[in-house]
Design a protein that fits this description.
Oligomer: single chain
Strand order of the largest sheet: 1-8-3-6
Order of helices and strands: HHHEEEEEEHEEHHHEHHEEH
Number of strands: 11
Strand content: 15-25%
Shape: globular
Radius of gyration: 19 Å
Helix content: 40-55%
Largest sheet: 4 strands, antiparallel
Length: 237
């Protein structure tokens, strides 16, 4: 019995289908090498410039990638959702160290294995290599497009874009609950906390956001209004 046998019950239907397809040609020895790990919220499990010796597969939870290179700005430039693979891009690029810092946003569940085990498998499995390469390319394209947008968007527009993307990836029924501090919102938009505070107050005043305790609520109706407001700036929204 492998660690993988224990994790299927935790997966969403979509994640189950993806992982099943990703591993459909995996040899038995690989399945027995997987280790299941559960990390609590706010755990830094990959650190930029550390040796890239481990590959992680995100099964449940949310992970953020953080850039700490420009002091004192901390920029959480992307959030990842299942199924996502970390550490494999460095392997394919021939990099010996991780190129970003990864931190859990929620309690998260992973499968992990060594880089050498991953390499032994994926270089001989065209299906897995193709799926991972497609996922990596999509991520790089999405991130490049976002960074180009940020070059031309002002403070309020960056916050609106963040809210738009957050709704699309996290909404349930006709709303999304944003349980994030102003500091976390600032990290996600590369803005100052002061700018984020001012912008959020204005969006609440205009009715785009509803404040409930320390949380913010964005409804489907207001999400559509945000799309309309951004449409003049971003042609694919």
């Amino acid at each position: 019995m492998s660690e993988l046998d224990n994790v299927w019950r935790y997966l969403s239907d979509e994640s189950h289908r993806y992982l099943e397809q990703f591993l459909k040609n995996a040899p038995r020895w690989l399945l027995e090498e997987f280790q299941e790990v559960v990390l609590s919220k706010d755990t830094e499990f990959v650190t930029e410039n550390d040796p890239a010796n481990t590959v992680y597969i995100l099964l449940t939870g949310v992970v953020k990638a953080t850039d700490l290179r420009v002091f004192p700005v901390v920029y959480d430039f992307i959030r990842f959702y299942p199924v996502e693979i970390f550490g494999a891009m460095e392997f394919l690029l021939g990099e010996e160290t991780y190129k970003t810092t990864l931190i859990t946003v929620t309690t998260s569940r992973f499968l992990k294995l060594s880089k050498d085990q991953f390499a032994k498998w994926v270089l001989n499995d065209i299906n897995a290599l193709k799926m991972f390469t497609a996922s990596m390319t999509k991520y790089l394209l999405e991130q490049c497009r976002k960074e180009r947008l940020f070059m031309f968007l002002q403070g309020e527009e960056r916050v609106l874009l963040f809210l738009h993307d957050f709704y699309e990836k996290n909404h349930s029924a006709d709303k999304v609950i944003i349980d994030m501090s102003r500091n976390d919102l600032a990290k996600g938009t590369a803005l100052s906390v002061r700018t984020v505070n001012r912008t959020v107050k204005e969006l609440i005043k205009e009715g785009f956001l509803v404040k409930k305790g320390q949380k913010l609520i964005l409804t489907f109706e207001k999400y559509n209004e945000i799309k309309l407001r951004l449409a003049d700036k971003v042609d694919d929204i």
